[in-house]
Amino acid sequence: MKIKKLMLLIAMLAMVVSIGSYAGAQVAEEPAAEEPAAEDSCADIFRDEQAELAEVGAYPTSVSEEARACEDSGVANPYPPPYFYDDGGLLYTLDPIEDLYTSSYDPVAGVYYVYDLVTKAFYTLPG
Length: 127
Fold this sequence. Notes:
The chain has three helices and five strands, in the order αααβββββ. It is an alpha+beta fold. α2 packs antiparallel against α3 (about 65-70). The termini are far apart.
């Protein structure tokens, strides 16, 4: 009688284990989120673009196409645009290391015009 109870107990345990493993296999795994990885790679692309811009001082850089593709996909570029024109039409180019925009030298006034991103103010530097 003890052997029959033992066999019944083992059979029930085997059935519970097999049902549990079958139920576990039926649980759908959640797909891995791809967006954070894309945002991480875009952050690297944006950072590389700024480093290259600072190195060569020219725009566009070689990673610009990739950076634009990231922006087009909806990932925000945390870095400011590399240049802008003021109301008077003067071109300012970004110095990402100094966090400011500088114009070309104005020989008539004898100064460089500067827009500081931190203070959000315009000022001049003597040439």
